[in-house]
Specification:
The chain contains nine helices and eight strands. The protein has helices at 115-120, 134-147, 155-166, 173-180, 184-195, 199-214, 222-228, 234-245, 249-255, and strands at residues 11-15, 25-33, 37-41, 47-55, 61-69, 76-80, 84-91, 112-113. The radius of gyration is 19 Å and the shape is globular.
């Protein structure tokens, strides 16, 4: 078991702990800022189990609250208080069954906070008590995740996810159905149950996330990004990104430099 004696770093950081050996866990991250601010959270098709808290000057934690952030189809703006910290487990798409007692499709698009989160992940509330500092909280999370039984693999969903990512979100559902020799109806039902989004919604997020990431390269023309990411033209991409993020690509390009988009 890893021992933790860490400073809680400012900003967004991924950390290495034993919980990552659970194949359902894609990343473990922390976020902390000494000043209050607003952030846009960009949907990525994943579910995050999050613990948020206030950090006192002596490093002690107050008001630890669990949150489930299921897959969203649109970005959302959140307000973060000064000295508010977060520890999150990003779960792999299609691998939430060993964590949630509720089908993901029933809570997608709706942030679950406090007692609402505990209704879907009963053990999450227990980790919020008797933790005096960040190291104790991370240790408690790590021990619990390491003790969970492995989730049985859903081969069909894993295959669909692989095809979507290989084609960077451009593949149509009927094409996927032909490749894995399963009806579109079955694909939609099984995928939505496991991932919380339909294959079409998830594909759109993969494509849009790639386009937004490309905007960080200031020398990459917006028109070229649109073509490379599979949009019919720049206007099409602009409409989709504005619907997804609430902002145009040109405004987003400026915002990406400010650190308010996570």
């Amino acid at each position: 078991m890893v021992a933790f004696a860490m400073d809680f770093q400012i900003g967004f950081n991924e950390i290495e702990i034993d919980a990552l050996e659970n194949e359902s866990v894609e990343a473990v991250w922390t976020y902390y800022n000494v000043q209050g601010n607003h952030h846009y959270i960009v949907p990525d098709g994943r579910t995050d189990l999050i613990f948020t808290f206030d950090i006192q000057a002596n490093g002690q934690l107050n008001n630890i609250i669990p949150i489930i952030s299921p897959p969203f189809t649109k970005a959302h703006l959140i307000k973060i208080r000064a000295h508010q910290g977060f520890i999150g487990l990003r779960l792999r798409a299609g691998f939430t069954a060993s964590f949630l007692s509720t089908p993901l499709s029933m809570i997608s698009g709706s942030l679950q906070y406090g007692k609402d989160a505990a209704e879907h992940v009963p053990w999450i509330e227990n980790l919020c008590s008797d933790k005096n500092n960040v190291s104790q909280l991370i240790t408690g999370i790590n021990r619990h995740i390491c003790a969970l039984p492995p989730q049985s693999k859903t081969t069909m969903v894993a295959d669909i996810l692989s095809l979507i990512h290989q084609d960077q979100g451009i593949t149509q559902v009927n094409s996927i159905a032909q490749q894995i020799k399963v009806s579109e109806r079955t694909i939609n039902r099984k995928f939505t149950h496991a991932v919380g989004l339909s294959p079409k919604q998830y594909s759109s997020i993969v494509r849009l996330k790639r386009a937004i990431d490309s905007l960080t390269n200031s020398s990459y023309a917006v028109s070229s990004i649109a073509v490379d990411c599979g949009f019919s033209d720049q206007a099409h991409m602009t409409r989709e990104i504005k619907n997804y993020m609430g902002q145009t690509p040109l405004i987003l390009r400026k915002m990406l430099d400010t650190g308010i988009i996570l």
